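User: Can you recover a sequence for this backbone? Please restate the input before giving your answer.

Assistant: Of course. Working from this structure:
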């Protein structure tokens, strides 16, 4: 994978110090994507990179979203940071049979 911390910051749009540990965020994103893809899958590098960036952005957004102490509905980040990359990765992951 060619994604580094600077690429993640650029993708997220982080301009300054926002308190996010982007190294940890990137490591988590890589681990989640690699775990989903598994061994033996032939996912092109650019697709893996896009998946890592998307998951990293979701993790970053979740850390920055309000947990709020005010009245009214709160739009929270999705619980599963992989939600947007399942469809992206699906064509490259062999279907399993139970």
């Amino acid at each position: 994978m060619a994604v580094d911390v600077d690429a993640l910051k650029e993708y997220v749009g982080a301009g300054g110090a926002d308190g996010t540990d982007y190294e940890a965020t990137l490591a988590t994103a890589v681990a989640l994507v690699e775990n989903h893809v598994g061994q033996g899958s032939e996912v092109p590098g650019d697709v893996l990179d896009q998946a890592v960036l998307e998951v990293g952005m979701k993790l970053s957004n979740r850390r920055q979203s309000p947990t709020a102490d005010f009245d009214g509905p709160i739009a929270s980040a999705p619980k599963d940071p992989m939600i947007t990359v399942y469809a992206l990765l699906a064509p490259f992951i062999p279907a399993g049979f139970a």
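That completes the design. Helices lie at 5-12, 22-37, 45-64, 86-89.
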